[in-house]
Each structure stands twice: as C-alpha cells, then as structure tokens.
Design brief:
CATH architecture of the largest domain: Up-down Bundle
GO molecular function: DNA binding; DNA-binding transcription factor activity
CATH superfamily of the largest domain: GntR ligand-binding domain-like
Protein name: HTH gntR-type domain-containing protein
Keywords: DNA-binding, Transcription, Transcription regulation
Order of helices and strands: HHHEEHHHHHHHHH
Shape: elongated
Radius of gyration: 23 Å
Distance between the termini: 45 Å
CATH class of the largest domain: Mainly Alpha
Number of helices: 12
Number of domains: 2
Helix content: 55-70%
CATH topology of the largest domain: Four Helix Bundle (Hemerythrin (Met), subunit A)
Structural class: mainly alpha
Pfam family, one: GntR
Strand order of the largest sheet: 1-2
InterPro entries: GntR_C (IPR011711), TF_FadR/GntR_C (IPR008920), Tscrpt_reg_HTH_GntR (IPR000524), WH-like_DNA-bd_sf (IPR036388), WH_DNA-bd_sf (IPR036390)
C-alpha cells in the first residue's frame, strides 16, 4: 500500500513576515546597527495586527538577527548573530541520532586540515600569544576530574582559535561546530575520566609543533601535523568511548551530586 506523504505544515503569517524581512535586509545590504521600520509601518506594509508584527520580530530576535529595545529611540536594531544559536540548534537536531566520536572525526579529519592550511600567514602575534597561553594552561592542569574536563575544553579551544582566523566562514563554522559536538560528547560521556596522560601529552606535543609550523609558514608541515593530530585524537577518543561504553549515561555518583532541591532530583524521587 502506497503511503500518502504527510502535508507540509503551513507557515504562520508571522513566519512569512520574518522571512520577507530577512530577504529585505539582504537585498538592501543593511548592516549591524541599522534599524528596521517601526511597528506601525510594518503593520501597514503587511496589513496585519500589532501582535503578528511583534511575533515576527520576536522570531528575528530569537534567531539573533535583531535586538529589540523599548522606550524612546528603541525599536528593532540589526545585530550580527554569533554562531552559538545555529550551532546549538544543529546539535539539538543531532542529539537523538546516536552520534559518536568516530562519526564526528570522519568529518574533522578532513576539515581541520583544510582549515589549518587556510590560516597560514593569517595569524597575528596576538593569535600566537593566545595559542601559546592555551598550551601553557593545558600543561598546568592539576590531576583531578574537574581539571581534566577543563583540559579537554582547552584543547578544543586551541582549534577554535585557529578557526576564528579562517578566511572561509563556512569552513570556520563547520570546524567550530564539530568542536562543539566533541565538547558535548566529553560532558555527556564523561570522556575526561579516567585520566589519560598519553592523550594529554600527545595533544600538547602536536599543538606546540603546529605553532612552530605556523610561524614558519610551512604549509606542508602544517598539513602533515594536523592530519596526524586528527588521526591520533580519533584513536584516543575511540578508546575512551569503548572504555565508557558499559557505563550508564548518568552514573550513580553523578546523581549523588545533583542538588536535592533541583526539579530533576524531585522528579526522580517520586
């Protein structure tokens, strides 16, 4: 029996208006700080009620495209969105699809190398200072669970620093998004436990060699090092996931740390 495809949800008027405003912003070449027409003008333009216009503007605000200010001189002011809302929505989309580290590294092995090569000659002294400070912070981590968790985050931030210098915004976004995915996996799977000094030392070593190669503007060396670094990191991540595979998503010791006053704990106790 042939199944009839379910009809697409009909867009609300507020959604159509917000889409049209976005097209208008792009067509007019508007920039951060520019103002959208006021509510009354938008109501007249679209022939709709104030509530519909406000809903459309709220959609744009949630998407990070505008800031709504009240009072004299207020209104809808264009705002350059950062990557976090988009990254968060994509991570939510993938959350229920059983994503693992191997799948993330299938892309990361390719994109990190491309991104690293693209920033050769683009790193400023300030960028190098940030990368050196990051490495130093990683090497000063103390041996306890919370600090190892912080170390994993710092190691990913090293790669975010490089991505921010990438001239290709799509490539930069994808690399930072994959780092966000790994950060989430680290938290959910507690992949900073147990301590793995070999993983730590390998990351520090690759990061220091990469900084030297970036300073020398040696594209072949940068490409080689980043490719090796990604293969090595994937191996460690796979080993960590295998080691944690038998554990529950939320271990008993983690539950014990949840405040008894929290809604989650109260629900679990019912």
């Amino acid at each position: 029996m042939v199944q009839t495809p379910s009809p697409r949800r009909r867009q609300k008027l507020a959604e159509l208006i917000s889409d049209d405003i976005k097209r208008w912003i792009a067509t007019e070449g508007m920039v951060e700080g520019d103002r959208l027409p006021n509510e009354r003008t938008l109501m007249e333009l679209y022939g709709c009620a104030k509530g519909t216009v406000r809903e459309a503007l709220k959609i744009l605000e949630v998407e990070g495209l505008i800031t709504l200010k009240t009072g004299p001189g207020g209104g809808a002011i264009l705002h350059t969105p950062n990557m976090e809302p988009a990254s968060r929505m994509l991570r939510n989309f993938l959350h229920f699809r059983s994503l693992d580290g191997q799948q993330v590294y299938q892309l990361r092995r390719l994109l990190e190398v491309e991104m690293a090569v693209s920033v050769i000659g683009r790193l400023s002294e300030e960028d190098f200072a940030t990368l050196e400070a990051n490495i130093h912070s990683c090497e000063c981590i103390q041996p306890n669970d919370e600090d190892h968790r912080r170390q994993r985050f710092l190691e990913l931030e090293f790669h975010n620093c490089l991505a921010r210098a990438c001239p290709n915004p799509l490539l930069a976004f994808m690399c930072r998004f994959l780092n966000d995915m790994l950060r989430d996996l680290v938290v959910v799977k507690k992949a900073y436990i147990p301590e793995r000094k070999q993983f730590d030392e390998a990351n520090h070593n690759y990061h220091r060699q990469l900084v030297d190669a970036f300073r020398a503007e040696d594209s072949e060396r940068v490409s080689q090092l980043m490719a090796e670094h990604m293969r090595d990191a994937e191996g460690h991540m796979s080993a960590l996931e295998a080691e944690m595979a038998g554990q529950m998503l939320i271990a008993p010791d983690t539950l014990a740390q949840v405040s008894e006053d929290s809604p989650l704990m109260q629900m679990l106790q019912r």
